[in-house]
Every structure is written in C-alpha cells, then in structure tokens.
Design a protein that fits this description.
It contains 12 helices and 14 strands. With 365 residues, it is of the alpha/beta class. The protein has a 7-stranded parallel sheet with strand order 3-2-1-4-5-6-11, with helices on both faces. The chain has a 3-stranded mixed sheet with strand order 12-9-14. Helix 7 (188-207) links the parallel strand 5 (152-158) and strand 6.
Length: 365
C-alpha cells in the first residue's frame, strides 16, 4: 500500500508546488499503484508535455515512495541539463542520448513507454520529413515496447487527426469519422499522427500490448514554448516584450485551453485507467476566440487592450473551431477541468516572468 511521505528537500520543482499538489490530490488513488516500481521510458521528455510529466513523476515519487525510474530520450542531453537542471540531474532520471527515429541500440527492460514527442511542423518545414519523423518515431517506440517487454504504452496524439472541424460541430467527439485532407501537403503533422494511431492499434492487436491514446488539444502552462506555432505562447511573448499583441488572422478562430496541471492528471489517468486500445480527447470543452484570448493576455500584461488583428473578419463567415468534446474522459475516467482559463493564463504569465533569465524554454527534446 502506498502511504504519504514527506517530500525530499533536495528537489526544488520548476513549477508551483500548488500545481504539484493539485496533480497529487486529483489523480485517482488507483493510478499510483500502477506506477509503483516502474521503469518508464519517455520520448519528448524535454518538451512541454514531457517536463510536466517529469515534474509530476519526481514529486509523486518523493511524496509516495513509488520507487520510480525514468529514462528520458533527448537529442541533446547537455542542453536539457542547462534548461532544467533540477529535472535532468535528479537521481531517478536517466538521460538517454539519441533520436526517436533510431532506438535500435536500446534494449533494456521498461515497464511503461510514453511516446510524447510532439514536434509540430513549423512554417516552411519539409512536409515529408515531418511525416516521416512522426511515423518512424512511433514505429521505433513500438518496437522498443516489444523488445523491453513493456506492459503499457501511451501515445500523445493530437486533435489534428480529425481534420478541419465542421462549423456545425461545436465539440468534436472521438468517433467523428473525418480526417485531414490528403491533398494538402501542409497536413503532414495531422497525417503523421493519424498513421501513428493506426500503427499503435496494429501493434496492440499483434503483440497484446496495452495501449492508450491521448488526443491533445490546445494547452497552457509553464514550459509552454513562446516562439513556436502556439498562439497563446506568442501572445504572452509579445506582451511581455512590451509589444502590441499580434493576431495573424482575423481573430475569429475558436480554441479551448486546458491547463498543464490538469493535462498531467488526465495523462496519468488515461495511462492507468483508460481502456486499452482506446483514444481519449484531452482538452477543455470551453471555447474562446483567438481575439478574446489575445485580449485577456493584453489585459493581464498591459491593463488595457493592445491587440492588432492581421485581417478583418468576413461577415457571416463560419469561424474555424478546434474544440473537443471531452465527455468520454469525464464519464469513463471521472476527469474534470480543475483550473479555469483566467487562472491558467495568470499562472503561465507569472511563471514566464519569473524565468525570464532562465535558458530558452523552447528547447525541443
């Protein structure tokens, strides 16, 4: 039986303790025995999602005595040590130098594989290279799961697998049969994630691996890249640099944002309690337009609206939506949204301000 223990004083988390306490208190109690004594292999462990998982694993390990071991794949171990020394140098963390496209040299046993590498295609990126990297990474981690005799595998996928959300659908469900346009080379990321999900299911059928898929939508929180293709991060960057917050489009696109502590609770719960072979939307179901989001950031940073739209809204045009239906996660796994958007933005902005002099948080794993 797992009992609460006093946290070790040697670990100084890189995020707020109240976020870690939220994760510990809201993650179902039956999740922790699943993790007890496990050696977990994590790809993408140095990115946004990965850093939150590491913070949560280290904290829970010290509070609950889980005897965890974490092997984190990274292309540049020294860069991660500079970025997050409290994570990279922790005794239960082992940095594995390598690339997710070639894991053939790794053969030691792992109980759990978390494939959280989520390189989003940047403007101008080679579409075929993006697709190949995503698919090859999934293929390699599945092969590792077989070699290492892992019992569980979690893929962090994306809501992009649904393709463009129809205007008539306010919240998109896991059983929506749509798909990204195969004639759009810019859909490489979405196509790669879609194929990855199919590969995961094939592997589960053939090898009996317990697999779960978390389809992540838009997220907010510490470690969020400020210079990548994420609107919220870009808005925070502009505001804290004293610049007007620039919206590239007309601001009518609708998104929803789940705070990273909530995301971590959802990921851990899906890993432990999700039905094998199933996908779960991971994201808030409360939509907000990009213009409204920019306005909220501007109000927090400047105390007034300093938002510049890149285009005028077209009258009567249906806005582009990217908002999940999360009933499956709520009804099957009792998951909830614990952090409202205002608090999520405030926490993210405060963390960025406190870490302005820290190394670049846009480091990819």
């Amino acid at each position: 039986m797992i009992t609460l223990q006093r946290a070790a004083t040697s670990y100084q988390p890189g995020i707020a303790v109240d976020d870690l306490q939220l994760i510990l208190s809201k993650t179902p109690a039956n999740v922790w025995p699943v993790l007890q004594g496990q050696h977990i292999f994590i790809t993408g462990g140095t990115g946004f999602i990965g850093c939150w998982l590491l913070e949560a694993f280290i904290w829970a390990n010290q509070q609950l005595g889980l005897a965890l071991r974490l092997s984190v794949l990274t292309r540049r171990p020294e860069a991660f040590r500079a970025k997050a020394p409290h994570l990279a140098g922790h005794p239960i963390v082992n940095l594995v130098a390598g690339n997710v496209n070639d894991l053939s040299g790794i053969s030691q046993p792992y109980g759990i594989i978390i494939h959280a590498a989520t390189d989003v295609a940047k403007p101008g990126a080679n579409a075929r290279a993006v697709f190949d990297d995503i698919v090859n990474g999934t293929t390699q981690t599945l092969a590792l799961a077989t070699r290492s005799k892992a019992s569980r595998y979690l893929l962090t996928s994306s809501g992009a697998v649904y393709g463009r959300q129809p205007a008539a659908i306010e919240h998109i469900r896991e059983d929506y049969p749509g798909a990204p346009d195969t004639l759009d080379s810019g859909s490489a990321y979405a196509q790669g994630k879609r194929v990855s999900e199919w590969l995961v299911q094939c592997h589960a059928d053939q090898h009996g691996l317990e697999t779960r898929i978390a389809r992540c939508f838009a997220l907010l929180g510490p470690y969020l890249p400020l210079n990548a293709h994420f609107a919220a991060g870009n808005f925070i960057r502009d505001g804290l640099n004293g610049q007007a917050i620039k919206v590239s489009g007309d601001g009518t696109a609708c998104r929803s944002y789940l705070y990273a502590a909530d995301m971590t609770i959802w990921l851990l719960t899906i890993l432990a309690n999700g039905r094998t072979g199933q996908s779960y939307n991971l994201g808030s179901d409360t939509g907000i337009t990009i213009n409204e989001l920019a306005g909220k950031v501007s109000d927090m940073v400047f105390g007034e609206n300093k938002v510049e739209l890149g285009a005028r809204p077209i009258p009567d045009a249906a806005p582009h939506r990217y908002v999940p239906n999360n009933d499956k996660a709520k009804n099957e796994l009792d998951l909830l949204e614990y952090t409202d958007l205002q608090s999520a933005l405030r926490k993210t902005i405060d963390w960025v301000i406190q870490n302005r002099e820290a190394p670049d948080h846009n480091l990819a794993g």
